[in-house]
Amino acid sequence: MACSVVLSSPFYFCKNFTVLSLQSSNSSHRTRTFVAMQGDGASAATKNNSDLKIPHVLTVAGSDSGAGAGIQADLKACAARGVYCSTVITAVTAQNTVGVQGVNIMPEDFVAAQLKSVLSDMQVDVVKTGMLPSTDIVKVLHQSLREFPVRALVIDPVMVSTSGDVLAGPSIVSGFRDILLPMADIITPNIKEASALLYGMQLATVSDMYSAAKLLHCFGPRNVLVKGGDLPDSSDAVDIFFDGENFHELRSARVKTRNTHGTGCSLASCIAAELAKGSPMLSAIKVAKRFIGTALDYSKDIVVGNGPQGPFDHLLRLKSTSRNSGRPGAFNPSDLFLYAVTDPRMNKKWGHSITDAVKAAIEGGATIVQLREKDVDTGSFLEAARACIEICRHHRVPLLINDRIDVALACDADGVHVGQSDMPVRFARALLGPEKIIGVSCKTPEQAHQAWIDGADYIGCGGVHPTNTKENNLTVGLDGLKTVCLASKLPVVAIGGIGISNASDVMKIGVPNLKGVAVVSALFDRECVLTETKKLRAVLTEAI
Ligand SMILES: Cc1ncc(COP(=O)(O)OP(=O)(O)O)c(N)n1
Ligand SMILES: Cc1nc(C(=O)O)sc1CCOP(=O)(O)O
Ligand SMILES: [Mg+2]
C-alpha cells in the first residue's frame, strides 16, 4: 500500500530532518521565528512594528468570477476578521455556482512580478496560498518567499473545486509535497487533497484522518489540519489537527446548507488572519472554525445563483438586509408618530402576552415599537424580542430594544433606545453599525447637541408630564420639550404622561422636528390595547 511505502521510506523521514536542520541554519526565514515564538508570546513580534501597522495577509490564489471562493473569498474573510489582505493572482477562472467553465493561468513571470510588488513593499505578515495551477508558479512562490521571508506560511493545497473541477493537476502534487510543504507553518487539506498528497491513500474514517495528519507532517509542515467536511455519514464536521506532538479532534455541528462554496479558502484565510494578529496556531484554527460555522449558519438560506453550490456571506449581513426579511429600510422620522413602549408589569396585570400586546398596538396604528422589559432575565428578553421581531417585520414596523445593546445585536433588532446613564451613543453606534436606529433620551439642549454629534437618529424628550411608569423622572413640561426641540438637529419624540387627553396639546407646540409621542401606560395599562391605540392614533391624526 502506498501509505506504508511512505511510512517506511527513510527518504521521507530523512527529508523531514533535513528540513528541520535547514530551518535552524536558516535563521533569516521568519516563518520559523514566528512559530517558535508561539508559546512565549507571538504578539511580541508585532510589538516591534509601528502601532499603526495593520496585520497583513497576502493571498496567492486564483480569481473566482462568482466570488464564492478563491481570491474573492480570501479578501472577504480577511476583511471580516479585520486584517488587511493583498492579492497575487495565479489564475483567472470563469466560475459560478454550477462549476468552473474556464481557467486562464497567469504566466509565472507575472506571478513573480506581483509577488515582488507586494512583498518588497508592504510588510506582509502571513502568506496564504490557494490555487497554484502550475509547478512553475509553485517554484516562483518558493523563490519569492526565500527572498522576502514572512512570519508564517499557510498552504491550502487546492486541487479540486467544490463542483469537482480540477484546479491543479496531478503534476502539481509533487510540487506541493517537495517544495511548499517543507516551508509551511500549516497545511489545510481536505480528505481528497490529503489523499492525493499521500499517493492516493484511502481516507474513509476519522481514524484514517489521524493517520493522514501524521503522515503529512512527515513532509515537513509544522502543523497539519486535515478537514473532514467531506466525510460521509457524520452529523458533525470533524477536523484533525496535528502539531507534530499532539492531536486535537476539532468537532462542530455540520450546518445543513447548499452554501458551502469557498469554505476551504475562507477557513485558511481566517487562520492566516488570526496568525497575522499574533494568535498561536491552535487558537487561530479554533477561531477560524467558529467563524466559518457561524457564517454558514447565518447564511444557510440565502440564494445566490442556480447551481448546486452557493456562496456564503462572510460579513454576516445579507440575511438581515435581504428584501424578504421585511425589515424596514433606512430610519424614517415619521415612524416616531405613535411610538409604543412596552411594560412587563402592565402586560402581566392585564394578562397580555408581550406578543399579543405588540400585535394589538401595531394593529391599532403604532408606527414603531420599543421593548422596555426592565427586570426581565436576558434569556426571556431575547426570546420575547425574537417573537416580537417576527410580528414587527410582518407589519414593516421597526422594533427597538430599550437599554440592551447585547439583546438588540443578538436578535438583530432594528435599533436601540438608550438613556443618559446607559451605554453612550457613540459606543452603541460602533457596536451596531451605521444602519441601526439609535434613539437617546434628552432633557436639555446640551444633551440634544451631544446626541447629534454622537450619531443618534432621534431623541426622546420628557417627561413632558408627570408619570408613574418611570420612577424619579424629572418633568420638563411642554416648555422644556419645546426648548429641546428647538435646540435639536434631530427629530424628537415626546414622552412622559402622554395619553388621549393631552396628546393633541403636545403635538401643537409648533416645532417641525417634533414627530410624535411615545407612550407606555396609555396603551398598555389598559384592558384593550387595540382600542386604546386606535383612539390615540385618531387624536394624533386630528392634531397635525
Ligand atoms: C422614546 C423614549 N424616550 C425616552 C426613554 C427613556 O429612556 P431612559 O432615560 O434610558 O430610561 P429607561 O426607559 O431606560 O427607564 C425611552 N425609554 N424611550
Ligand atoms: C420610559 C420613560 N422615559 C421618560 C423620560 O422622561 O425620558 S418618561 C417614561 C415613562 C413613560 O411612560 P408613560 O407613557 O406611562 O407615562
Ligand atoms: Mg435606559
Descriptive overview:
The protein is an alpha/beta fold. About 45% of the residues lie in helices and about 15% in strands. It contains 23 helices and 17 strands. It has helices at about 1-10, 10-25, 30-35, 45, 70-80, 110-120, 135-145, 170-180, 190-195, 205-215, 265-275, 280-300, 320, 345-350, 355-365, 380-395, 405-410, 425-430, 445-455, 475-485, 505, 520-525, 530-544; strands spanning about 55-65, 85-95, 100-105, 125-130, 150-155, 185, 225, 235-240, 245-255, 340, 370, 400, 415-420, 435-440, 460, 490-495, 515-520. The strands form 2 sheets. Strands 3-2-1-4-5-6-7-8-9 form a 9-stranded mixed sheet, with helices on both faces. An 8-stranded parallel β-barrel has the order 10-11-12-13-14-15-16-17, surrounded by 7 helices. The longest helix has 18 residues, at about 280-300. The radius of gyration is 29 Å and the shape is elongated. The N and C termini lie far apart (about 85 Å). The relative contact order is 0.08. Mean pLDDT is about 90; it is low at about 1-50. Bound molecules: ligand LCLJCK34, the ligand Cc1nc(C(=O)O)sc1CCOP(=O)(O)O and magnesium ion. Magnesium ion binds near residues 419 and 422.
Whole-angstrom Rg: 29 Å
Using DSSP, what is the number of strands? 17
Largest sheet: 9 strands, mixed
Which ligands appear in the coordinates?
Answer: ligand LCLJCK34, ligand 3NM, magnesium ion
Name the helicity range. 40-55%
Mean pLDDT over the full residue set: 88
Total number of helices: 23
User: What's the arrangement of strands in the largest beta sheet?
Assistant: 3-2-1-4-5-6-7-8-9
For the termini, the CA-CA separation is 86 Å
Q: List segments where confidence is low: pLDDT < 50 over at least 5 consecutive residues.
A: 1-49
Q: Approximately how much beta-strand content do the residues carry?
A: 15-25%
Q: Which geometry do the CA atoms define?
A: elongated
Which structural class matches the secondary elements?
alpha/beta
